[in-house]
Input
Amino acid sequence: MRSMTGYGKGMSQNENFEVTVEIKSVNNRFLDLNIRLPKELNHEEVGMRDFIKSKILRGKINVFVNIRENPQSESDLFVNWEAIKKNFNHLNAIRQTLGIKEAVRLEHLLSFPEVFNPNLEEIAQEQLHPLIMQALEAALDEFLRMSEREGKNILDDVRGRLQRIGLLTNEIEELAPVNVQDEFDRLYQNTLNLIGEKKIDKTRLEQEIAIISDRVDITEEIVRMKSHLDLFNKTLNTNGEVGKRLNFILQEMNREANTMNSKTTMLEISHRVIKIKEEVEKLREQIQNIE
Output
């Protein structure tokens, strides 16, 4: 089990370039992937997307790619000779047209920023592509390790809350027969107080009240709650995308708790049902972070 929140950073370099990839993620219903690359390297996005999708199933993922010259590089790879020649010719043409006697000097050429911009499109396939993928893989490895650690912490918390819900359900199960009997006794006594013992058929009265009292029986809800708990635990032990399935099971657990609360007339049961609903809500918050 992995959390959808995480962070990872990877770096790769050669004699000319240093590539850094950062991955940040928050929870999301689906996989929402955003990759920020230098515009000259937009063609790398498809391969990066496919690689990330093979590792991550859900979450809002932001990937940042930064490329810079290796500080130890002594190569002239970053000198854009074509841009230098082009700007030199333009400056000469301006000088001749306007009759300027001053010659074109080095500082004039250095004022154009593009003279030191590498043509990334030309060198990407040869040098940058492997560096980007290596840095991406390193960033993903760190991201997944963090997601798994967070997932383990969530799993420990979830198991503890499931255990508490199970204990509360067992306590409710013990109280459930008393709830039905108390409801029968209450209705029987209220009827006698209103009508009087001499004016009614006690056998018929007991039959009718027994039918009405049965409406507060929560045995079915308890059985279904235990079934949901069992399914939840089994789902936790499966691989793959489990967050959506767990969220659906929690909805069913909350529905059973609401039904129990609406049917019971015992405060002891109502108080336990409220605690179950609190645990279910906390579980729902945790499950939102599970991939």
User: Anything to note?
Assistant: The radius of gyration is 35 Å. Strands lie at 6-13, 17-26, 31-36, 59-69.
